[in-house]
Amino acid sequence: MNEFNPQDIASLLDEVRRRPPLVHNITNYVVMNYTANALLALGASPVMAHAIEEVEEMAGLADALVLNLGTLSPPWIESMLAAARVAARRGLPVVLDPVGAGATRLRTNTAHRLLETRSITVVRANASEVRALAGQFTRVRGVDAADPVESARDAALKLSGQYQVVVAMTGPEDYITDGRRAIGVANGHPLMARVSGTGCVASALTGAFCARSPDAWTAAAGSLLVLGLAGELAAQANPRPGAYAVGLLDGLDEINADIVKTRARLVRYALHPDRDEHPNPAS
Amino acid sequence: MNEFNPQDIASLLDEVRRRPPLVHNITNYVVMNYTANALLALGASPVMAHAIEEVEEMAGLADALVLNLGTLSPPWIESMLAAARVAARRGLPVVLDPVGAGATRLRTNTAHRLLETRSITVVRANASEVRALAGQFTRVRGVDAADPVESARDAALKLSGQYQVVVAMTGPEDYITDGRRAIGVANGHPLMARVSGTGCVASALTGAFCARSPDAWTAAAGSLLVLGLAGELAAQANPRPGAYAVGLLDGLDEINADIVKTRARLVRYALHPDRDEHPNPAS
Amino acid sequence: MNEFNPQDIASLLDEVRRRPPLVHNITNYVVMNYTANALLALGASPVMAHAIEEVEEMAGLADALVLNLGTLSPPWIESMLAAARVAARRGLPVVLDPVGAGATRLRTNTAHRLLETRSITVVRANASEVRALAGQFTRVRGVDAADPVESARDAALKLSGQYQVVVAMTGPEDYITDGRRAIGVANGHPLMARVSGTGCVASALTGAFCARSPDAWTAAAGSLLVLGLAGELAAQANPRPGAYAVGLLDGLDEINADIVKTRARLVRYALHPDRDEHPNPAS
Prior knowledge:
Oligomer: homotrimer
Largest interface: A-B, 32 and 31 residues
Number of domains of chain A: 1
Radius of gyration of chain A: 17 Å
Helix content of chain A: 40-55%
CATH topology of chain A: UDP-N-acetylmuramoyl-L-alanine:D-glutamate ligase
Strand order of the largest sheet of chain A: 2-1-3-4-5-6-7-8-9-10
């Protein structure tokens, strides 16, 4: 699969629902409930477990592992490292969501520490986090992106190359690259940024899609496409953020192969061997 | 009360609302908010506290204690044991929700450790957790049931006898037994399984009902009946899981004595002295 | 500003939205998600971080700090103290929400310990918590108020004087005093008490308003006014607590300067030098 094809994502979505993957999340307190409900709404199966006493056993049962650095503390870091080792040994996809990387050293350093285990498959992050992890200047103060996606594409490519990971960067236009291929996903809705945890949900869904696809780049882009489309469905009846957060879950339930095939708004990027970007928009 | 009578549950519901019990929950991060809102929607009063430094004092103020093993870690286990001791001394009902028993040894062992204190009044669990705790084979991998309720009735009776507890097993048809009596509750809706924490909510409501009833078997069956009916009310206007989760809370507010008396779908089981089951359906 | 003027709050609301403050919350597990979504719905920017390893750094980036004692444990207390020190050094407003003070010694003592650092700007609490912290008898058992607001105005004045803080006491009629000025806010709706975390939301919003106002008394009263009005907006279409909780977030998005200026229901209290209260109702 060198090309990104919405038809493949439609099939992948069906496959996720046919054989619901168990997604083991070591994630932050703020979004645990919303993440679990998003995975359930999509049709996947969530489990949350973080104690060092059980985290390897749980990762041993799972189909994907999602590590999220929000509300981080040292015992959780040890559990993430242990679970990542099990996942790597089992060949499971591991998604890293470096929430707040760039905001505090604990988060930036932990993200690098996890990346250095070479067990991470996908980094799902916003532009500020990607810039911070690529060692670039960022204006981030909290956990929300302060840099435009456009300013971070080079950083995404650098990060991808440095750790051999897919970088799935979310923003008004998502940008997903494995260093060799890159695609933009322009689906989504501004209200997504008004709901706590939509980025974390993107990471969790990416885990679910990676569990059922041999190609993490396709799975990551596909999960952002599906979430973006669900976000568009949600906006139709929910103009304010409270109801919208609920509607987004309903959108993950409503989304289907037909919607994926007909409403994807993609931007294709050709990556030159020297990695200069030459955007080549196409629908 | 040897017979389960919806009229008794209607009265119990009114009593819970007239004198809202304080339900002390030591529960998992994923469902804390939803559980608190469910108790409030029903008309009860939730409190969450887990630190060993205050857990005995809080259990000393409460009318019921609910111990939930999701997102478990060792300090929380010590707090659960301490709170359970206080509850036992005060004669409080204690509900155990062994989330993920059978999935990891930490959870299975902790459930047994708590049961061995002989302070547990009701075990509210799904079929896989009941099978796991009764020492039977289970196909569970995460926290969702992988075994049909029908396959776990014997296990429920065994568990009930072993620890002298009420077992309230939830599924498409709930099964509630104290070893001497057994009843099935067929109310509910498939969307309940698409919302994170409905099982945990069942456990918390069971705590509230037990706090206002001298008979834990009646209270446990009654709480599952009330939740099942609320789940049916919720489905009338909410066909997708996001809105349904909200509607379930509204259903707990809407449910009343009249609905309980007229819409209960019960399955009566006669238990022989040798505990063979002879299902004897009746409305 | 010796007078409380809804026009000032309308301007303050606009200012919060024009320059969204970063509000650093060290808060309880139950309400983290709802609090984050409430701040986002209002137009502010939330961040949750509690590890001692990063809490000073995060407080160093924030515009306000909110300390909430629900689901308290000793490591979190140390983090609160550390973050409060940074906030005080930087001149940041610090809001204390003493959830459950009076219910357990851990919570009561921690509230006093934080107040004694002299870094607290506003105590946002219910009547029972205010009475407990002022050393008065309270009937509280859990985290819900068991005393009427009217019975705690003296306690609010005492607490305000003892620690030189604004006390923002919520209830059917909120009462906000800095010891020199006092105002009642009669906006709100009974359903707010049926939703877990509305008090915690009040505290978080108070942090956001204090971040953009030189006068904490005005900011605190203004945030309770805005929340009360949002609560009234929410009640128009949501008669039950599940949907109401969602609607309250939408209300925080919908609320605007015009609504603030036209629908405020204020009760003005004149405080004599000897602090006898002489209520002097006015719209």
